[in-house]
Amino acid sequence: MTRVAVLTPDPADASYAGQWPGVLERLAGALAPSGIEVEPTPWTDHVEDASGLAGFPLVLPLIVWGYHRDHARWMRACATWAAAGVPMLNPAEVIGWNSDKSYLGRLADKGVAIPPTLWVDGPTQDDVDAAFDRFGSDVLIVKPRVSGGAWKTLRLSRGEPLADAPDGPAMIQPYLPSIETEGETSLLFFGGRLSHVVNKRPITGEFRIQVQFGGQYAALPEPPAGALALAEQALAAIDEALLYARIDMARGPDGQWLLMEAELIEPDFYLGSAPEGGARFAEAVKARL
């Protein structure tokens, strides 16, 4: 068996203690038939010194949940791993810049379609009022640029006061009603090849599609028309040697697909909805070893 490391949450963060072991078990089960054994190790044990990762032929940062709540330490860790040449996939440099959603603006500059976005530092009521006028929308989304799992994400209607605003750099976008009617669609890529497609829909009255908010997931037999083209355009614009990528998208008011996120750090592969994806991931890992 070949042993690879899987980075896991900070042991001091009890909020994930009941969840991540199940994710690790699914990953281990997918990799075992290919002769690959996983060894969990907290990412917070390797922030200043990468020597503890030196003996592994591959390090997978697939369960680094909570990094968004300790972003300064996360960025130090990524710099440490990059400087030490840790054989990490996705690369340490990539998971560093991918942790700040301002990368979406850089992809938009390369022609990738994203929702209209106002980038602000510490959102204020004036920012929100200006966004309503700028976008001509009656509902907005306000979220931190460094976030995960819809953390501190707000949906505001016109005239509703801004409360509990996220601290620091944030993004304001018009709310996409298609989230409630069609959901969000994710295309999973392993080794640069499309593995599977999953549609995610919120429960009635909710706008967040994450499982902790009741999101309902279903595998699709193939990408909806136009979705693959946007995903491939986004990956080409990123232009990095990626082991895995989850490209999330939703339809805009005109029916055009818009990139919501390119998750390159610790994406849920949705193996519960598409178990065949596990074997494809294992194949991609084995090819890199």
Features:
289 residues, alpha+beta, five-stranded antiparallel sheet, four-stranded antiparallel sheet, 12 strands, 27% helix, 25% strand, globular
3D structure, described in words:
The longest helix is centred in the N-terminal third of the chain and has 14 residues, at 71-84. The protein has helices at 20-31, 71-84, 92-97, 103-109, 125-135, 178-181, 227-238, 277-288, and strands at 2-8, 36-42, 59-60, 118-121, 139-144, 154-157, 169-174, 184-190, 193-201, 216-220, 244-251, 257-263. It is built from eight helices and twelve strands. With 289 residues, the protein is α+β, with helices and mostly antiparallel strands. The strands form three sheets. Strands 10-9-8-11-12 form a five-stranded antiparallel sheet. It is globular, with a radius of gyration of 19 Å.
Strand order of the largest sheet: 10-9-8-11-12
- Poorly predicted regions are none
Main β sheet profile: 5 strands, antiparallel
The span between the termini is 12 Å
User: Helical element count?
Assistant: 8
Mean pLDDT figure: 94
H and E order: EHEEHHHEHEEEHEEEHEEH
Secondary-structure-derived class:
alpha+beta
Short description:
With 289 residues, this protein is α+β, with helices and mostly antiparallel strands. It has eight helices and twelve strands. Strands 10-9-8-11-12 form a five-stranded antiparallel sheet. A four-stranded antiparallel sheet has the order 4-7-5-6, covered by helices on one side.
